[in-house]
Specification:
The strands form four sheets. Strands 6-2-1-7-17-16 form a six-stranded mixed sheet, with helices on one face. It has a six-stranded antiparallel sheet with strand order 10-11-12-13-9-14. Strands 3-5-4 form a three-stranded antiparallel sheet. By secondary structure, it is of the alpha+beta class. It folds into two domains: 8-169 and 319-440, FAD/NAD(P)-binding domain; 172-314, Beta Barrel (Elongation Factor Tu (Ef-tu), domain 3), CATH 2.40.30. The protein has twelve helices and 17 strands.
Length: 444
């Protein structure tokens, strides 16, 4: 394993990237274009994860869409930032682009072939599974389905209790879409500082909610997933199947709470917990689910106070490997106790193709700078790249869960503007600050 605190003067300008997915490929490219000798280890085609089929690098295993194009969408803004930082993934997406309306979709075979061809000319690619973390400067980008063998090494590095193997994600709601005339702030029995928002349900509202929940369309488990994997954090609809009152005695229990409108305890409550440091996003506590996205929006809007809810992220429960980044990583994506090792991609606690790419890009830049004897950098929190880094490093480690890019992660504007105008100004500020940052740290 790499020696903690390695300095650039004591090592050759060589970087090892473990994993040839989007993050690993982007990290390798960023290092290569800065004069670093890069070796990529990719276990395919010697071995495949349950989700992979192609021997090419940068395989898109799910959708062929990289989401929205518009700069008034946080995902579109992140893609523009990546383009301005010379992303190989964005370059390949441009070459393999197919019609998809307001989204960026690609021919997945052409996309992967393009990246594989470019990196094969610039890097050494070794088609073999890595079982232990090598010496030197290393970027780990093995993805959400890291092999069991390498997971053992990752467990040692992360002290195991901070390495997770599934996402139990509850929906996240924009605060200004929550009806404050219905929802009330309070902690159970008056303890704490009223950190939770509470959606009160009457008996009739609760049983109607349970009925709709049980009848809603579910997303099937994949071949390598099963309900037993999630026994410690069951989907809310599975709990409801165990009895119509189970939720009222579980995640929706109202004990210790009084609705100020009635002066009485509700029959049930849904608690919302602050998700970000700016208090613009709230998490539905205990609402991990396998409901389809359209059904989540329909059913969860039946909850009093959430009729007009805008969901920044919808719930999910699936097999995924990631680490507790707020505890383990610094703002450069290095392990705090092993500064020669960087983490990239979904392992850091981001969700999505573009987000994974972004963490690969950032890790690649900093690894190259470490090898070149330059100071490591941190992007401004006002950029989409910086807001993601801030989220995964500064979140509460006790409740950390993977996140996709969204405007709720950005520092708010100083002035009050309409939602549409706000997104436009956040994008303008982000791109302006990105260019200033590039110049200030000589980021070519």
């Amino acid at each position: 394993m790499g020696t903690p605190g390695l300095v650039a003067e004591k090592v050759s300008k060589a970087l090892t990237v473990i994993g040839g997915g989007l993050a690993g490929c982007e990290a390798a490219w960023q290092a290569v274009r800065r004069g670093i000798e890069v070796t990529i280890y990719e276990m395919k085609p010697e071995s495949f994860s349950p989700a992979h089929r192609s021997p090419q690098l940068a395989e898109l295993v799910c959708s062929n869409s990289l989401k929205a194009i518009s700069l008034e969408n946080a995902s579109g803004l992140l893609k523009e930032e990546l383009r301005r930082l010379d992303s190989i993934i964005m370059e390949a997406a441009g070459e393999a682009k197919i019609p998809a309306g307001g989204a960026l979709a690609v021919d997945r075979e052409e996309f992967s072939r393009y990246i594989t061809s470019v990196l094969a000319k610039q890097c050494t690619i070794i088609r073999r599974e890595v079982k232990e973390i090598p010496e030197g400067i290393v970027i780990i980008a093995t993805g959400p389905l890291t092999s069991p063998t390498f997971t053992e090494s990752l467990s040692f590095l992360t002290r195991e209790e901070y390495l997770y193997f599934y996402d139990a994600i509850s929906p996240i709601i924009e605060k200004d879409s929550i009806d404050s005339s219905v929802v009330f702030p309070a902690d159970r029995y008056g303890k704490g500082d009223s950190d939770y928002l509470n959606c009160p349900l009457s008996r009739e509202e609760y049983y109607r909610f349970v009925e709709e929940l049980l009848g809603a369309e579910k997303v099937p488990y994949r071949d390598f997933e099963n309900l037993r994997s999630f026994e410690g954090c069951l989907p809310i609809e599975v709990l409801a199947e165990r009895g119509k009152d189970t939720l009222a005695f579980g995640p929706m229990k109202p004990v210790g709470l009084i609705d100020p409108r009635t002066g009485k305890r509700p029959f049930a409550v849904v608690q919302l917990r602050q998700e970000d440091r700016f208090a613009s996003l709230y998490n539905m506590v205990g609402f991990q689910t396998k409901l389809s996205y359209p059904e989540q929006e329909r059913v969860f809007r039946l909850i009093p106070g959430l009729k007009e809810a805008r969901f920044t992220r919808l719930g999910s429960l699936h097999r995924n490997t990631f680490v507790n980044s707020p505890l383990l990583l610094n703002h450069h994506l290095q392990f705090k106790e092993h500064l020669s090792i960087f983490l990239a991609g979904q392992l850091t606690g981001v969700e999505g193709y573009v987000e994974s790419t972004a963490m690969g890009l950032f890790a690649g830049i900093n690894a190259a700078r470490l090898l070149g004897g330059e100071g490591l950098v941190v992007p401004p929190a006002t950029t989409s790249l910086g807001s993601l880094v801030s989220y995964i490093i500064e979140s509460d480690s006790r409740s950390f869960q993977p996140m996709s890019i969204n405007f709720g992660l950005f520092p708010p504007l100083e002035e009050k503007v309409s939602k549409k105008e706000g997104k436009k100004r956040l994008a303008e500020r982000s791109l302006k600050d990105l260019e200033m940052w590039k110049d200030s740290v000589s980021l070519c």
